[in-house]
Queue: 4 jobs
Job 1
Amino acid sequence: MSQPADDDGAQQAGAASADPAPFAPFALESSKRIYDSPWCGLRRDMIRLPGGKRQDYHVFEVTDAVVVVPVLPSGEVLMIWQYRYPHGRTHWEVPAGRLHTDEDPELGAARELREETGYKPGRLERIQGFFPINGISDHYAHAYIAWD
């Protein structure tokens, strides 16, 4: 039985129903490059909202990535203790990283797991990927479970 959607369009995870119809995209009036580097880019788009109002929208551009959830034979999930400069904290996270140009996501997942943990997966199972920063970017993360 499906769960009713909240007023904001949210629906309980695991609810058995089809996706609702997508919203109409905003009209793009102009786009300007603000910054480019080998690592990332930034552009400023001028869009028109459904009510007719114009708005600028900054879009962060970065290549797609992989994220790996390594499950050990014991059933424990292997995580790494990682420092991240943007928020200045060290925290636990699963192995992840950007794909190389034209790299197959499954090969990238195996590479990232080896680079960050030293583990070589016995088998990779592709699971639903996601847009981790979808409010500001079309950056996509291909997701995998790594089994020994």
Job 2
Amino acid sequence: MSPVRLLLLLPLLVIGIAAYSLIEADERLPTPAAMTNVAISRQTMGPLPLAIAADAAAESASSVTLESEPLRVLADEGARLFAARRFVEAAEKLLPAAEAGYPQAQYQVGWMHYLGFGLQRDLEAAVSWFARAAEQGNVDGMNALGTALREGKGTGQDHGQALHWYRAAAEQGHPDGEVNLGFMLEMGYGTEQDLPAAALNYRLAAEKNHATAQFYLGSLHEEGNGVAADLDTARGWYRRAAAQGNEYARLALQRLEGLAPAPAANPAASWPGER
């Protein structure tokens, strides 16, 4: 991987509990205005960052039986406190639920260790909690574990295992998992490149109104990669993504509609063997 591409793939880490988002300032992407075309924009964005589901009530089945309801109450209260930036109090609620085996709390405790909010920053501990949640079937944990493995944060980098956990999340209809699986298939990370399968996974998430997936799918239609080249279809997906605030889609739409200058020749716009 070229140094340019490595720089452009710096991840954007977006965290959301109960529709609350936090962004780590030192892990922001380059601004979309710095991108020269759709191809470099999508490669710059990369697979989706780690994310906590906005709806904390959407959980996978837990192995906890009699204690499930009290643990759910603890986890929900912890998520509310986290959203209010009362991180130490959130940890006091979430950690007992996680240690008792409640998977959504395990996932959230993993995030608190990852960020160092309310708990000591400890990437290895974060991955351990993600894994415990994932192994109980928690789709948020599966997606987070996949990203940790993809990036080699808190664990060894392993694209094959990352692909496994993204696929597990995607097979349960998790939109972020579908987008991340699609990106791995598009780029051939951990597997052979499979553009039609990448497009299929993007479409599954796009139809759930996932803005990033809509942008990615639009760019495949613009380029004719894995799907038929169709500028009208590309514009349609870009419009849907842009309406949700996706800046990359807005810029791509402007360019297609002749409202932005054509990109200058840029040798970093493609990387042989990675497209």
Job 3
Amino acid sequence: MKFMNCFGSCRAGIAAMEFALTAPLFFLLVMGIFDTGFYFMQKWALITGLDRAQRVIQTGEILKTPAWRRELSFRDLICRSRLLPNCEKRIVTQVRELDGASMESMTSDGKVNASEGHFVAGNPGKIMGVEVVYRLPPSFVGPILEQSKGPDGSVYINAMTIFRTEPY
């Protein structure tokens, strides 16, 4: 009976018990905030890389590159950021001339296939569509982003742009 009386009034170790109960949730929240921030930094890096690379096509600079090297140099411009780890192996690009038709997204059916990539350097005054899909490395928040998951369980981010090439 003495034990029961002490159980209700004893305060030794309360702080440790509260920490043990709240610490996992706190650390989960902090890790989620950092990982979500890293996700958005990678999305920003992909969009910035796409803007830089599309400008090379828009001005016709890509045509100064040998034909066999154009797609690689376009991908290199996108992958220049250090925020996109192992970008060369994780990226799929599609560059097309749009002849009044809409550009079908590589992710419209929820699957991304590396063989779907397509590259056309364009001609003066043409409307071009560019889409880039990047497979994120495994992360802590990955399971939370269900709508972005591919069939293999990876999380994908994509960026698209449509522009008219200049009369070079």
Job 4
Amino acid sequence: MTNELHVVREPRGQAGPGQRPFGLVRPAACWVLVLSLLGDTSVTLAQDDPAYSNLVFTEDPAPTAREPGKALVFLVRELYLRMDALPDEIVMVDGEAKGLLRQLTWFALQLEPGRHMLWGVHQGHDLVLECAAGRSYLVRLRERLDDKDRIVRDWLRDDPGGLEVLIKRHSLRQATLTPRGAAWIASRRKHLSHTEPPVAADHTSSGRAPWGFEHMLSERPLDRMNLETDFSNLTGRLALDSTALHFRLRARIRSSFTSWVVVSDSLDVEFTQVVRIRLGGTRFTGVAPWLDVIYRTPQGLRIASFSDAEELTAVSTYNRLFTVLEELLSARSPDAAVEPGASRGRASHPRHGLLQRLEQRHQHERHRHRAAREQQPEAGMRHVVPQLADLRELVADGGGHEPAA
């Protein structure tokens, strides 16, 4: 007769109630190993059995199909902050437990249209999410260490069109909550609390256009005429109306003991020019998240990046700016909304069609420059650098920049 034994094996710090953390060897485990080697016992790992684990995992990166009349929200935790695994994070939506978010995993939620509160993460702030029927949303859990080596967690909005690239890049697994996991969350429910994020008091918050954001940093790395204000701590005002984005900067900088120089910058981008918005990561000078706006110009694709200079309110400013831009772009072109679950084909996303046309144009230019080099080598070389810059301006990376830990 063959005996069947279950061995509980979960990462350190993530053991369930009444279990010892992984790494402490039980005497019975040695007998299980001996019996399995002798062929008398079959061993089933508990982390693969829903009856013995809080989560079960699947490797398939296919997006979840959306239910009719609902919004689809993807939650991702792709960072591995320390050498040892960190505990699972409980995800609450309004007053209901929706799942556990383990490191290097993701899962999807089906939510009713309207405003929802995302909370429950330890040492993290709440996130208000406005959901619309038939839309998809991507929220990433950023984890970092502060100057006292404490873990700080923030929810950051991102472009759902980059979900599949994010899953493949970090080898993320889809996590599904089991009945045992739901019972464990219920036992921890009383320890959870809401934490509202700090919000800048001088931001326009009327709920309608125009929207204003003060003390905003700006970068346009692909604009050769904007190097004077890039990579500086000069701040300006970002305003959004129903048709365009407007940035204005004007500052006096002391050039000597007796003189000053005025530095100014301005940018106007109509929403019809915008290709996509995405999380632009952080900069080495701080931990504030940046938002990338990728837009078309007659000279090619350009990027304008914005961030709140005030570190305390930077996360709430980023999420609010992303939400407002997303709604304005959706109102301009509802059919252009990113729907990762709608189709597995690249042609379903308007950005992929644009990139295909740019790639075809680039191939045509390569053949033309090759012919020019054969006829006049020195003339052909003058086009090499612009073409390389053109490739960088495509910004074809669907996952965006990595948020700094």
